[in-house]
Amino acid sequence: MPVSRTLGSITVTALTDSEGAFFQPRTQAFPHATAAQWAEADRRDPASVTADGQWWLTFRSFAVRSGDGPVTLIDAGIGPADAPAASWAPVPGRLPAELAAAGIDPADVDTVVLTHLHSDHIGWAVTGAPGRPYFPNADYLVQRAELDAAQSINPGLPAGLIAPLRAAGQLRVVDGATTLTPAVRLLPTPGHTPGHQSVLVSSVDDRMLLTGDLLVHMVQLVDPDLAYAHEEDQAP
Ligand SMILES: [Zn+2]
Hints:
- By secondary structure, the chain is of the alpha+beta class.
- It is built from seven helices and 13 strands.
- Strand 12 (197-202) and strand 13 form a beta hairpin.
- The longest helix is centred in the C-terminal third of the chain and has 11 residues, at 157-167.
- The chain is globular and about 50 Å long.
């Protein structure tokens, strides 16, 4: 079942598209983390490690909604069985069922924020053949720096994702910090990819940052200077 948190009148719902063991030993993903740092990360987030010490990874999207208004969806998961992430991630994802369980119809989504264009964040953005936007009423928001780097991030992106969104008139390219509503703001957080963005949700008393792959593992909160091997710019 999806898990929700409220900030004032805003509900943020975590939707699990899929989960599975990471494709390589976690000590290769964070080659500089010490045994003590792993132990502390596992204490804080026991669900992210298996009994035999593998990284158990949850692939999530987040739905942000004020009352029963339109939905802003952050990231689009690993996608269906034939999605680009199928080469390494545990497809098919179950985002459609998670959305339904949260009472969200794809047509309710008026904004899809893609934090970045890695294959495990765009899976449900465009589906079918020929590809069509899965969320028929949504603008899809991507940072210009990410779009400019798309070919190097994933050579199949221009044809498989960008062209169908453009053809449907649903691609919205943004430059830097962007205010969507008084409560929802896009913040550039480059490093993992050149145009990675995070989403800051604010209410009177609370703030929540939806970080995409700016943070992928608790060990990065144990020591924020730890480099992640799959980061394009690994300097802290
Ligand atoms: Zn990524």
